[in-house]
Amino acid sequence: MPRRPAPRTGPTLAWETLLPLGDAPTPLRDRLERSIRDAVHRGVVPPGSALPPSRVLAETLGVSRWVVTEAYGQLVAEGFLEAVVGSGTRVPHRPARGPDVAAGRAAAPLRAEYRRPRFDLGPGIPDLRHVPRARWAEAVRRALDALPDGELMVVDPLGHPLARTAVAEYLSRSRRAAVAPDDVVITHGATDAMAGVVAGLRAAGHRSILVEDPSWGRLREVAASAGLTPVPVPVDASGVEVDRLVEAAARTGARAALLTPAHQFPLGAALSPARREAVVRWAHDVDGVLIEDDYDAEFRYDRRPVAALQGLAPERVMLVGSLSKSLSQAFGLGWAVAPSSLRSRIGLVERARPSVLDQVALAHFITAGDLERHLRSARGRFRRRRAALLDALARELPGLPVTGIAAGMHAMLGLPPGVTARDVRHAASGLEVAVSDLARYRATAASAVGAGVGEALVLGYGNLSDALVDEAVARLAVAIRTAQDGRA
Known about the structure:
By secondary structure, this protein is of the alpha/beta class. The protein has 15 helices and 16 strands. The chain has helices spanning 15-18, 28-41, 54-61, 65-77, 133-146, 161-174, 190-203, 217-225, 242-252, 273-285, 340-345, 356-367, 370-396, 421-429, 469-484, and strands spanning 82-84, 88-90, 119-120, 184-187, 208-213, 229-236, 239-240, 256-259, 289-293, 317-322, 334-337, 402-403, 410-414, 433-434, 436-437, 456-460. The strands form four sheets. It has an eight-stranded mixed β-sheet with strand order 4-11-10-9-8-5-6-7, with helices on both faces. A four-stranded antiparallel β-sheet has the order 12-13-16-15, covered by helices on one side. The longest helix is centred in the C-terminal third of the chain and has 27 residues, at 370-396.
């Protein structure tokens, strides 16, 4: 059957016929969304078609431009349409992206417990619209084909050799880590790896652990659950303050530290070269251990990602990473790197490993180059999205400080004097905008004083559709003004 040609955009095309709005007692935006979905499912607007610019379609349908931009934005956010810089809004070529995005999947309603606000500025979430489903499915298929029958029942306590080898080679070339396959332990993710490490520290006699303050709270909680007391150390624009770390260690007897050298969360700093050397020197002096959380280290936009701290002192540093920020935490895969000499002193307490099938799929995904291809593509998207976010913040909220290096998937926005992040977050939630308060990540009330940071928001852009950046920031500006006026 010949393929129906894609409709041409332009004022002469009868889009009012292709996209009937009807007269149902529902908002125009919802009616337009439903009409676009129906037109795509029926093939009236086939894959690859460009939809008219919002201004043109608004004039054609006799509605406000806001109605069209809202409908486009929602459908792009769901992955039903795609917004391509320089090419407008289009219907994706579904077959090219594999059977995982067959028609109708994106339109299925999401269970309420998993829904995120439409304007998602929450940090820590990658771009879920671009998870490489088809390539992962192919890696799983290849794993099933390649695994000998006997290996389907064997579970290596450190992880399948194929996965350990692939991860070691990947970290050697991408993070310049000093790692051999025997140094790698495959885990369910960074949190799982951290749980094994801190349990090992506790068994080796450690009673406390130095942590960056502010920082991601989940890993602090894991350490506390294992019986280690988190000891907060301030962070500034050059990363953790090593002099303060040394003082805190002397005061508490702590000989272990949890750090994010490549891109600190949430302040967005990279640990300076001088401090990298200083913290390694401290670890040598006290016979200590550094746990390096690699977080979103793959995403640097102004230069190549800095090398892992582990490469400076592999006998002192346990490198922890996962797929949660590069792909999604749904994959449940990660790693911990420590040579046998370090594991003999601080053993990783044995935990349940991911399925053999998932581990071998990971090996195929890495060795085929799919992970690095995905990361290159993601870096391009995040670089453009970050630039768009900064432009929108400068336009809508001039004068407010935005901090953090050109990396990762978040930035930090300082608030006007007298405005609390809690009030802004409350006002933003009423506008369908998700934001996060810096206070959420503080281990102590004054943790950001050293960095000169007061009330601030942590803004994520990983899972925010490009088409919604401007509107998200405009709504955030309204929320800040509302809080400023005392109406939150």
